[in-house]
């Protein structure tokens, strides 16, 4: 099989989807690997390393899309890339379809086979390809929030760790998944007073056993969100419904409950955002203010630490990539984790949650596989 790795062109995206070590494994198994020139530079990986692994370097992203049977990316196809996609081509990347009808319709029209990293799910419910990026985003969220709490950034001028005689800052984290857990660890480590809200009591019990004493675990509902918003200096939105649009838990009206200069970090922005006033931002222009409240809504937070993120993501995707290279689209029928990651198949919507989000026709996987793989 021919596997293609184009350079990411999304603004401020420095990650690359494939490591030289994986390229070498693919070549040893008889596959051809095409890497766009300088695709790994932002992550500290030189073209020479890919060449030593047996990969071929291409000067053109268009050539990658034209020749590759399987295209491996980090972020969703950008507007310039959509016309380059080939019917029946497998595209393995983060899509976050629920946040964009326009992207969804473009991918349906292209008739590709869309495998979404964020939807690949093991039998135990874990999300192996989303997890490393969630961990990184969670660790970065308090760090970024602390920066924008500073007065020169428009914040209220609160030091999260406090000092002798002055109370620490207060951090509210909504969502206790991988993002919320890691955000709590870092915020607590900075010395902040942390409240973490979640609706899963079993998850709250687990977090109580592993998180520091300065993290308080509270059951989440509208009343508790409003209660702790009034006291928060930094709010981190970390809710996820795999494959669906994130629920909006903080309305514009609720911004009035907070003091001017409070910072909101919406890690759920890839899935549409969990604050009503959220809109995607970039690393170059990461924040904006609404009613005096600072919003940080960068859509690719882990991209700011590209080397760490690239190795974490590519190590996680490698086993699935090797399976796809060996067996092609047929492996989706055999591998339950990849089956759950299949969002679109040659113009048909195979994710029920995605179909419901945009009121599209849903085609069950059984109807896809029976005629196609006999």
Outline the structure in words:
- By secondary structure, this protein is an alpha/beta fold.
- The chain has two domains: 2-119 and 306-372, NAD(P)-binding Rossmann-like Domain (Rossmann fold); 131-299, NAD(P)-binding Rossmann-like Domain (Rossmann fold, 3-Layer(aba) Sandwich).
- Helices cover 34% and strands 16% of the residues.
- The chain has helices at 20-28, 47-52, 61-67, 101-110, 131-148, 178-189, 201-210, 222-229, 306-327, 331-334, 336-341, 352-358, 365-372, and strands spanning 2-5, 32-36, 56-58, 70-72, 90-93, 113-116, 170-174, 193-198, 215-219, 234-237, 263-266, 287-290, 293-296, 342-345, 348-349.
- The chain has an eight-stranded mixed β-sheet with strand order 3-2-1-4-5-6-14-15, sandwiched between helices. It has a seven-stranded mixed β-sheet with strand order 9-8-7-10-11-13-12, with helices on both faces.
- α7 (201-210) links the parallel β8 and β9.
- The model has no long low-confidence stretch (mean pLDDT 95).
Could you give the topology of this structure?
Blueprint: E1 2-5, H1 20-28, E2 32-36, H2 47-52, E3 56-58, H3 61-67, E4 70-72, E5 90-93, H4 101-110, E6 113-116, H5 131-148, E7 170-174, H6 178-189, E8 193-198, H7 201-210, E9 215-219, H8 222-229, E10 234-237, E11 263-266, E12 287-290, E13 293-296, H9 306-327, H10 331-334, H11 336-341, E14 342-345, E15 348-349, H12 352-358, H13 365-372
Parallel strand pairs: 1-2, 1-4, 2-3, 4-5, 5-6, 7-8, 7-10, 8-9, 10-11, 11-13
Antiparallel strand pairs: 6-14, 12-13, 14-15
Helix pairs in contact: 5-6
